[in-house]
Amino acid sequence: MEQLTDSVADRFSRWCAAVVDRLPWGLARYVPATFLGFALINSFTFGVDLVLLTVLHGVAGLPIWLSITLAYIAAFGLSFLLNRTFNFHSHAPVGRQAAVYAVVVLVNYLAFILGVGSGLTALGLEYHLARLAAGACEGVYMYCALRWIVFRGAPALSAV
């Protein structure tokens, strides 16, 4: 039975660990619970990114590069806070983590968001599809960076 003092973050982590433990074909040995947490959190924040992109470019008529940039900043700020709290349960000083995260996000932005996203749009791919392609690339990069660079040393989900 859950304790009354459990936080929402603790329950989220236990739920992710329980789902991963039930993966078929022995996949639980290879798929960390933090990967599921990351996928859920970043799917949500990616949705936020797309909604903002649509509003900024499709409705407000801002240039695509500015719309991508503003939507990206908002979504990744939210992603940092949610992953820090719910997925990686980090209690390290937020300032250092935020600085490292800013560098990771800058590399991601230049390589995948502007490079892949804007590049594919410039080649004629519809901007939502270009953003989806860039999102697939950035997902792999960002999970690895969060797990092994930004939040390294954070407690494992099974320990929560």
Word description of this protein:
It is a single chain. This protein is mainly alpha-helical and 160 residues long. It contains 5 helices and no strands. Helix 2 packs antiparallel against helix 5 and helix 4 runs antiparallel to helix 5. The longest helix has 29 residues, at 94-122. The radius of gyration is 17 Å and the shape is globular. The protein starts with 7 loop residues before the first helix and ends in a 10-residue tail after the last helix.
In short:
The protein is an all-alpha fold. It has helices at residues 8-21, 33-59, 64-87, 94-122, 127-150.
Short descriptors:
mainly alpha
Order of helices and strands: HHHHH
| Helical percentage | over 70%
Rg (C-alpha, Å): 17 Å
**Total helix count?**
5
Q: What proportion of the residues form beta strands (DSSP E)? A: under 5%
How is the biggest beta sheet arranged? none
How far is it from the N-terminal to the C-terminal residue, by CA? 15 Å
Spans of at least 5 consecutive residues with low confidence: none
The chain-level mean pLDDT equals: 88
Number of strands: 0
Structural class: mainly alpha
Q: What is the overall shape?
A: globular
Which helices and strands appear, and what pairs or packs with what?
Elements (H helix, E strand, L loop, with lengths): L7 H14 L11 H27 L4 H24 L6 H29 L4 H24 L10
Helix pairs in contact: 1-2, 2-3, 2-5, 3-4, 4-5
